[in-house]
Design a protein that fits this description.
Number of domains: 1
Number of helices: 9
Helix content: 40-55%
Distance between the termini: 48 Å
Oligomer: single chain
Low-confidence stretches: none
Radius of gyration: 18 Å
Amino acid sequence: MQNQTVVITGGSQGIGRAIAIRFAKAGANVVSLNRSEKAGKELVQTLQSIPECNEALFIPVDVSNTKDVQNAIEQILMEYQSIDVLVNNAGIVRDKLMLRMEESDFDDVMATNMKACFNTCKATIRSMIKKRRGKIINISSVVGLLGNAGQANYAASKAAIIGFSRSLAKELASRNITVNVIAPGFIDTAMADSLGEDKKDAIAQQIPLKRLGTPEEVAELAFFLAGPHANYITGSTFTIDGGISLGFSIKN
């Protein structure tokens, strides 16, 4: 990854932050696209403190806005000439039971989680096609595979990412560009912390490995998929969930 350019959406916290740090430690140019200017600047300071990091850049952008994303990608290409790895991690939740879910709850989640993925991929792939190489990693969720009560909008957006990625993988394979999906389960982030320790412990007991995952574990998977050892992998979805997607077990 030395001197390669890695673009991450939602890179300022949680899984995205861990991914940004992992690539920075490998000597990449790391560019984060997210809304919060304060969080973005703090991330850049963190990355710049890593001795191996080549360069770090933050661009404030609403990734659900097509024109803003196009402008941001153009800025990155002017700065670094190419984008080698794209990680679509930005995501939000607006959890409600269907009877209480507003149209805006559905639209906002689809825009940030799914349309943003479309926006960044469309703006980036032309440069990858010209160079005949590139890695795209889209972050979905096991909820997109399993569904979850109160998360119909979130599950729809994350399931859509999987179908989108499989289709794009077929389109780009002949140009030596791979597209893969990571579907995390319960990961120990600020979002999980908001549940409270009792709820987190209860969730952990439902997971075969009896714990939540760490952002760093997801980051290692993303790093592998972006590297040369994953050159023959495309259109795949990788669950990293401690086994929760295996379903229930019958105890003897």
